[in-house]
Design a protein that fits this description.
This protein has 11 helices and 14 strands. By secondary structure, the chain is of the alpha/beta class. It is globular and about 70 Å long.
Amino acid sequence: MDAIEERKVYRLVLTGGPCGGKTTGQSRLCTFFENLGWKVFRVPETATILLSGGIKFADLVADEVYKFQENLLRTMIQIENTYFELGRTSNKNCLIVCDRGFMDASAYISKEKWDRMMRSNNWNPVELRDNRYNQIIHMVSAANGAEEFYATEEHSCRSEGVTLARELDYKAASAWIGHPYFDVIDNSTDFENKVNRMIECVCQKLGIDIGDRLSITSRKVKFLVSGPMPPDSSFPAYQDFEVVHHYLQCAGPRVQARLRKRGQNGRWSYIHTIRRPQQHGQSIEVRTQLSHRDYLNMLTQQDDAHFTIFKKRRCFLVNNQYFQMDIYKEPSHPRCKGLILLETYTSLTGDKLKNILPTFLNIAKEVTGQPDYSMFNLSLREDWNNTKKFCYSLHGKTICCHQKADATYNSNTTSTTTPTFAIATATTDTGVDKVNEISNNATDD
């Protein structure tokens, strides 16, 4: 009985202006908490569901717009209640991430009509704003502080200019003023740290100790672990996931695209990642959460030049430091046989870094930034000496993918995270994000 009372159900709204990083932030947040052993539910944006049925918002007359907004809110409440109930009955700590929330609709309707809608439905906006959700996080639009990343060729459907995007951003944020736990994540840092600040903000409210994993100076470090694996009893509490990666055919010679399937006990989540060449000096990745159907459709684009990568991923905490260990599995290239890689994010270096590493693992050496341990290269079917596809740079530097380099590689080099910013997203008059945003640093996921 005590275990049930201590179990947490946390209802979070992730909102923001156009091109604020909401989509990527949601994906990163979900992965972070799943790795901690939490159950994560993602409540889809109600407007997206309704508009995907053929409704053209611009074609609606005033009365139809009013009824649409009213029915949107009724639908939203019911959809959210379904997930909230699942959270209450979950046997794990549960994070429920709502893609926008009830008050977002107030940004797209006049105050007079909003008040009338509240009265006619007996809705209490204070109750629905302050008590329905535990925390609100607003991701500020790139149009306000990161303008050079607001519009790109990938998003031809974007119609808002920078000025309009700023107005929409302000309206979306203003809708939530008054919530006791309302946090605004601006563009004062690069995009990687923007997303990290968002995750850290949630962890702080929940009282979760994340150490320095999300600090501005934090970087990903990778270590080669020698076998044999110690028994499971040697590990602290851990979560195991099955992970499958497929590389896809790409239009450009320096673009990488892949699918990731990750799950436990037959339950899977799906991510599509595109890594592109430098843009405004940044190495960028675009991540998209996929449905099972979309995942199967995209599998038809698999690149035969790469093996499918199968891994067991074990996540655990040691010395208040979060670790992720990938154990490569068959079938794969012989170069992956017995390969075990340990990763963590930290700002520590030298002896301080060594002191936080798990002593029950036989850590052979640090391999941070070394292309021989890049998943892209490890998955290549061809021998590395006979292929032009070997990727020498993992972070968008001058020497890049699919190019042979006339340079020696310093195996002792420790790479740092290359920051990225959000790509623009298209938003309708109801505030619906239509495309996805940039993910965190260039990583093998």
